[in-house]
Amino acid sequence: MAPTDAGREDPRMTDTDALLDAMPFARLLGMTVDEASAERVVARLEHRPDLCTTGGLMHGGALMTFADTTGALCAYLGLPEGAGTATTSSHTSLFRAARAGTLTATTRALHRGRTSVVVQTDVTDDEGRPISQTTQTQAVLIGR
């Protein structure tokens, strides 16, 4: 675990289970986090019937939720202790249908400012083919 300024251990930086526990909607979605830092987050989501639209295709809303949640996590991990974040804008391009298997979301921070963070999330299928790309802006919420 990474030490905080006060010398305490900060579970945000390495404990992916604690991160998911702090985000109940991520648990509901069923995503797992493989890697989490302020620079990069890698998460997985299994294709499931309850996340699909007609024809067994992963619903676009599920893909956007997956990307938004992963992006928010990346933004959060780079914030000062006690700060929070909220999505203020999001743009998703959907490239191909997700029909089966495991999806992987890889998020990286593009910009970190005093009042906002911009992140980009690429979602790929088991074969590494692009499924979607989301760019979002997260507000930095301090002392609310």
Automatic annotation (TrEMBL):
MF-aspect GO terms: fatty acyl-CoA hydrolase activity
Coiled coil (UniProt feature): none
Domain Thioesterase: start-end pairs: 55-129
InterPro entries: ACOT13, HotDog_dom_sf, PAAI_dom, Thioestr_dom
Alphabetical list of Gene3D superfamilies matching this protein: Hotdog Thioesterase
UniProt keyword list: Hydrolase
Family membership: Belongs to the thioesterase PaaI family.
PANTHER family: ACYL-COENZYME A THIOESTERASE 13, THIOESTERASE SUPERFAMILY MEMBER-RELATED
Protein name (record): Uncharacterized protein (TIGR00369 family)
The organism's taxonomic lineage, starting at the top: Bacteria, Bacillati, Actinomycetota, Actinomycetes, Pseudonocardiales
